[in-house]
Predict the 3D structure of the following.
Amino acid sequence: MSAFASLKVRLPAITVGLALVSATAMGGLSWHFARSGLVEGAQNRLELAADARKIGIELVAERAAGDLATTAANPQVGGNFADLVEALDPAKADFAQIVQAYTSSARPEDRLAAEATGTMYGRRHGKVQEVARKLVERRGYADLIFVSEDGRLVYTTTKGADFAHALSERAFAETGLARLVQRLKAGEADATLFEDFAPYPAEAGPSAFLGRSIARRANVAMGTGQAAERVGFVVMRVTPALFDRTLSDRGGLGDTGQVVAVGADGRLRSNAPLGGGATAGTEAAGFGLTPALLGTGHAFGYAAGDGERMAATAKVSVMGAPWTLVATQSDDEILGAVATLTRALALAALGVLAATALLGLLFARSIVRPLGALTRALDALARRETLADVPGAGRTDEIGGIARAVVTIRDISLEDAARQLETNAAARMREESDRRALLADLADGFERSVGRIVETVSQAASGLNHASDSMISAVAGTARRSGTVAATAHETAGNVDAVAAAAEELGATVEEIGRQVEQAADMSRNAVDEASRTAETMRRLSAAAARIGDVVGIVSQIAGQTNLLALNATIEAARAGEAGRGFAVVAAEVKSLAEQTARATTEIGQQVEAIQAATGEAAGAIQGIVSRIEGMSQVTGSIAAAVEEQGVTTQEIVRNMGQASAGTGAMTQDIAAVARSADEAGTSAGQVQQASADLARQSESLRAEVDGFLATVRAA
């Protein structure tokens, strides 16, 4: 049983637990409400600070716009503006000298000396400079700039790096001043426009610009009136320091609070009063102020570089440029009182918890100790021990009632125990008599039933012994016959394998004969083809010999005619006498040649006749050979067909013998398995015989044990 199951542990634990829950709940609620109140108060304070700075920024912007309007309307400015534009002309010879005079030295006395040179620009500059200088120094503006209609900076109060330059130059073409001048050209003549902070070459940090047009009166017609003519623009350049004076007021923001301005492009428009690298022109998101947070419109918390901070925002329009004022303060400073309150609440909760625990322990002991005594008394009653006194019976509370109930239980238990003793003695006597009668009946019934069973088992064991003897004899005969059959099957399998091998050899022989016969048939067919071609050749030879004979006949006729012609020529030469002697010689030669030709043609004819006769005989012989070869080819084809059929039959015999061999092998295996089974059956029969003998012996032992058991029961 666990320790927590005891009341002396559970009661104090529950009391302390309830105290702990109560203290925790009250402390947690107090801390929560205190923290919520501090957070809400800080949010309201930050919102008020942002709204107050918003009013200050608007006043600064309105004052700057008013100062610009006043400057533009000043007679000194309006009256000298056109002359300044005309005098500081890059096309004039003294342009570089004038610029050098005003930019070579920053000392006022040097510039006064330049104004005393007597030049047109110096005289006009002296009148304007006093007005502009007082305005810039008194109000804290960065510079006052005069821009001509064609975009030249003809006057600046500070004579910085932008003096005498043109806005068309690459360094100034994309600046806020250039954009402002373009807007002024396109806007109304009396409008004051503002260009928000952006980098400017003449200033290390960003600059913003306010501008107005400058006009002068010009005669429209002599003596009829005057019309306004724009001659340029007056521009006031301001730096973040103008607004820093307003935003640097940290009243009501504690040690870590400050207010910064953020433009529509997400960059700071002011320098953070507490520094930390938050300078004008840097990305506000780098300090945790993302556009998403700034656009919420309500107080929010964010992670800054120096830890968690709380912020509230206020939207302000600086002459049309949308800014967001952000009042921030560290969470540690805002919630500093919460930490003090947390410590106080924790100490109070510990004090309450300790007092409650002490009271719980005392209360638990006042209950647990009497209950422990009652528990021990009840344990004694349960063990049937004699209980003289019950603790707490004299108490007047619930524990006393429980103690008195235990006394009543004790008395009733004693009375019941006495009655139970008497009842138990009588019951034991009746049970003893009934037990003896029951044992006698059981012994008789057991003897009848178990005796029959033992006799039946003995008879069955004897029969099983005889059956096992018969089975052993039968199994032995089966094993002998299986051995004989297995030997015969093994011999038959050997014979079948030999026949199968012989059949395979016969098949191979028949196949080889088939290949030889097929080769002989191919040779016969080739011989027939060759003999046919030879016969055809002999026929062509005979025809050629016949044609030669015809030619020889023709030549013979020609020789005869030549001989007659030679004879006629000889006769004619003889008639001619001496004149035909040469002709006679030629005729004699021709006659001689004709006779030789006749003899040669006669011999050729005889040879051709002999060739024709031999050719005819050879053609007849070849034709006979062709006939015999064709007959032999037919016989060879018949033999090849018969050999092929014999090969198919032989393959069938080989396949059947293979199947017979496989069947014989399977039969041999089956017979061997039968023999092994017979041996196993013999072994099993022997085991059955041994078991039957054991059963007979056990049945005799059982009979003896039953007789002894019955004797013991009847004697009990």
About this structure: Residues 398-576 form the longest helix (179 residues). The domain at 48-332 is CATH 3.30.450.20 (Beta-Lactamase). Residues 137 and 704 are 141 Å apart (CA to CA).
